[in-house]
Design goal:
- The structure is a single chain.
- The chain is α/β, with parallel strands linked by helices.
- The protein has 14 helices and 22 strands.
- It folds into two domains: 275 residues, Metallo-beta-lactamase, Chain A, CATH 3.60.15; 177 residues, Rossmann fold, CATH 3.40.50.10890.
- The strands form four sheets. Strands 6-5-4-3-2-1-22 form a seven-stranded mixed sheet. The chain has a seven-stranded mixed sheet with strand order 7-8-9-10-11-20-21, with helices on one face.
- Strand 9 and strand 10 form a beta hairpin.
- The structure holds zinc ion (ZN).
Length: 466
């Protein structure tokens, strides 16, 4: 069989891998490539005929793994899409949100009057529309975790949970081809242990080949504080010792639910001050509904919390903000409070208003709980810029900026080594590292080679006969 790494090769976004077993073609993930400097329209250039792909296997809902599927469908893909049930629902939500983002960008960039230069206009076209999202979700067939599914007489697939996001799974294949039985797995994104709301990642059965993510290669998560102590300290400093407001930018899907559950645990223990907590993101409310719908997949900790205290995403002083008018009212609420809003990197979303009104406020704290890519407003604040542009205005930064990596959804260097080395070296022929910056991959490669594993860092389009 043949493996080609078509995406997330020496970069983080655009996951897409092609597995060819004789003339049967399986695509594993089809993510949006949104690396710095990549035009959105470049995602339309598939290096193969989309109609030639027989099956698409989706590891999880994040846009860098799912966000280009509607483009593939639009371009002629007619096969089925296999994923778990929570992934199906979260993918529909995230793809629909992508369409809104495309539309907003188009509206922002299109000239209000005068001639539209054709060349520029083409780049601003949405990559796909809502009808293509619906065409995509109609193709989804959901599979349970840890139950082998026979694709045909030679190919069997099992989804093995990876934590990371509700529904996330590694795709484990058992394949019979000319050379006999072979196993290959695609990690998708690997979560970390003891993450709020999510179960721990499960080890894969021993495999011959592993395509593994490497986002946190070379880096270790801090271990000197817990989520509980960190949240208590930040909230006390921001809202109790001073009459201030705590603004937490958070991705609506996954990160917000983890944070709300953690705050609820503080509430139950009497550690959360009686100040309002606003979740100001309609998408976060929708995602929370999906977490409730698939409650049997949340962590045992969250399930036992539920049986003792009720809904883990509700507590007395928590309020989900629906209407934009309510959101505007919060911007003018000057009592101590916690505002959780998106977008996590501060590029768009209702968080922009909250920043606009608070960034020049000495009594405001902005607390980052997620990664912010270079070129984003979040990144500029984290690197300490004293003046930033918010909603078109240059504003001085007087608010306190804080961050933690305790809510990162990825396994760190040690977690990746532990996951990979679960398969002994005699069995695992090659580890293909994807989904990481070059330095991260190199750090992981060095340590894996020291353990006698064969490791490759594929270039985009590199083909491997395995
Ligand atoms: Zn992910």
């Amino acid at each position: 069989m043949k493996l080609t790494i078509w995406g997330a090769a020496q970069q983080v976004t655009g996951s897409m891998h092609l597995l060819e077993i004789e003339d049967y073609k399986i695509l594993i993930d089809c993510g949006l490539n949104y690396e710095n400097g990549v035009e959105l329209s470049e995602n339309e250039n598939f290096p193969f005929l989309p109609s030639d792909i027989d099956l698409l296997v989706l590891t999880h809902a994040h846009i860098d793994h799912s966000g280009n599927i509607p483009t593939l469908v639009k371009a002629g893909f007619e096969g089925q899409i296999l994923c778990t049930a929570p992934t199906a629902d979260l993918t529909q939500l995230l793809l629909t949100d992508s369409v809104s983002i495309f539309m907003r960008k188009q509206a922002k960039k299109a000239p209000k009057r005068g001639r539209v230069r054709k060349g520029n206009f083409i780049h601003q076209q949405p990559l796909y529309l809502q009808k293509h999202v619906l065409d995509t979700t109609e193709r989804i067939v959901t599979l349970p975790f840890n139950l082998a599914f026979k694709v045909n007489e030679n190919i069997e697939i099992t989804f093995v949970p990876t934590g990371h996001l509700l529904g996330a799974a590694a795709a484990y294949f058992k394949i019979i081809d000319a050379g006999g039985e072979k196993t290959i797995a695609f990690s998708g994104d690997l979560g970390r242990k003891n993450y709020p709301v999510l179960n721990n990642p499960e080890y894969l059965p021993a495999v011959d080949y592993l395509v593994c993510e490497a986002t946190y290669g070379g880096r270790l998560h801090s271990t000197d504080a817990t989520i509980e102590t960190t949240l208590v300290d930040v909230i006390n400093d921001a809202c109790v010792k001073q009459p201030g407001r705590l603004i937490i930018p958070a991705f609506s899907v996954g990160r917000t639910q983890a944070l709300v559950f953690s705050l609820n645990q503080l509430f139950v223990k009497g550690l959360l001050p009686r100040i309002p907590v606003f979740v100001d993101s309609p998408m976060a409310s929708q995602a929370t509904q999906i977490f409730r719908k698939h409650h049997r997949f949340v962590s045992l900790e969250a399930q036992s919390f539920y049986s003792q205290n009720g809904d883990e995403f509700e507590f007395d002083n928590l309020q989900y903000v629906k209407e934009l008018s309510e959101s505007k009212e919060i911007s003018n609420y000057f009592e101590p409070c916690i505002i959780i809003s998106s977008a996590g990197m501060l590029e768009g979303g209702r968080i922009q208003d909250h920043l606009f009104f608070n960034i020049q406020n000495f009594y405001a704290t902005i607390f980052f709980i997620g990664f912010c890519a270079k070129g984003t407003l979040g990144n500029r604040l984290l690197r300490g810029d004293s003046v930033v542009k918010v909603k078109g205005r240059d504003l001085s930064v007087f608010a306190t900026i804080k961050k933690t990596d305790l809510f990162s959804g990825h396994a760190d260097h040690a977690g990746l080594i532990d996951y990979i080395s679960h398969t002994p070296t005699q069995k695992l022929k090659t580890v293909f590292l994807v989904h990481g910056e070059p330095e991260a991959m190199q750090a992981l490669k060095t340590d894996l080679e020291a353990l006698s594993y064969g490791v490759k860092i594929p270039r985009k389009g590199e083909i491997f006969e395995i």
